[in-house]
Design brief:
This protein is mostly helical. It is 73% helix and 2% strand. The protein has helices at residues 12-40, 48-83, 90-120, 143-167, 169-185; strands at residues 126-127, 130-131. Helix 1 packs antiparallel against helix 2 and helix 2 (48-83) runs antiparallel to helix 3 (90-120). The longest helix has 36 residues, at 48-83.
Length: 190
């Protein structure tokens, strides 16, 4: 009498979704750190133009990744909720509300940056050298509003990322352990 071992559940769509999640997390880390460096850099020289161009390219990249992530998310939701509806607990409402706000800001932050760049000058955004179309008109009067919108949405987004990381502390801890082990095999210490 042999006992059949259960097959591990493989959900390729979920794995793809999480892969894009971590790619976007890395991109947003680069964007947040790059923004701090840009704001602290002297206005003349020092490669500030390259910093801005790189920042804008990563902004466009997260918009493209978000489109792919949205498509995969719809597929995951379709599979998950077609089998059973969620239990509407306070925890479910918290997680759903937090993730909804995160997704709204994942769109609002780069779009407000796009608005800011387009308000400043036409043909001002590229994806690592590939010119992107203008989505907003040049508007010197709206430049301050666009700048404030980009700054405020970025700050709120950063706060919500911290809240998300705290709420998902087990996942963050497990991933940190995996990263530390992997980096340790390369001979480095975290």
């Amino acid at each position: 009498m042999s006992t059949a071992t259960p097959k591990p559940r493989l959900n390729n769509v979920f794995k793809q979704l999480m892969s894009i999640h971590w790619w976007m997390a890395g991109c947003y880390l680069i964007l947040f750190v790059g923004a701090r460096v840009m704001l602290g850099a002297p206005t003349e020289g020092s490669g500030r133009g390259l910093l801005y161009a790189t920042h804008k390219s990563f902004g466009v990249l997260v918009l493209l990744l978000l489109a792919g992530r949205g498509y995969l998310l719809v597929r995951v939701w379709g599979r998950k909720y077609s089998k059973h509806l969620p239990k509407l607990t306070s925890n479910w409402y918290f997680k759903t509300g937090l993730h909804t706000l995160l997704y709204v800001l994942m769109l609002a932050v780069p779009l407000s940056g796009y608005w800011l760049s387009n308000a400043y000058r036409a043909n001002n955004i590229s994806l690592f050298g590939l010119p992107m179309p203008d989505l907003f008109p040049v508007n010197a009067a709206g430049l301050a509003v666009a700048g404030a919108a980009h700054s405020r949405t970025s700050q709120v987004f950063a706060i919500l990322i911290v809240i998300h990381s705290i709420a998902q502390h087990r996942v963050v801890t497990a991933n940190w352990r995996r990263l530390s082990t992997w980096v340790g095999t390369l001979g480095f210490r975290l």
